Amino acid sequence: MLVRLRGRDDTGSAVIEFVVLVVLVLMPLVYVVIAVMQVQAASYAATQAAREAGRVFAQADSPVQGRQVATAAAALALADQGFSPDPAPLALTCSTTVCLAPGSTVEARVSMRVRLPFLPDWLAETTAGSIPITVTHQTPVDVYRTSS
Fold this sequence. Notes:
Elements: H1 13-58, H2 63-80, E1 90-94, E2 105-115, H3 121-124, E3 130-140
Antiparallel strand pairs: 1-2, 2-3
Helix pairs in contact: 1-2
């Protein structure tokens, strides 16, 4: 006596497998790619902001004018990449007691938090919903400049 096992009908299972694959694998992968791209853009923006702020501060006539133009340069660099400069993420420090002394260095530090995409505001403002980025750039003050 021969018993034949009848195969199950697989009609429509490809659609179900595709939906499960998209939801469980593809959607998280797309989210990770978008989040990494946003963090990378913020990193580029912070690097550009720190570099430009240090450069314009080192070329300024006075420390007061230097802080003003450095803040404007950092805000412009952040806005160029689509990030808001508020609150001001820029900190400037000098290596000597006399800022802008010939041969000294100026350190520009830009610190910001990048919100992860598609999160509600209450979660994005916490440490779990954002990634901190800090960039430091040191710019030398020209040794041939006249002291101010």
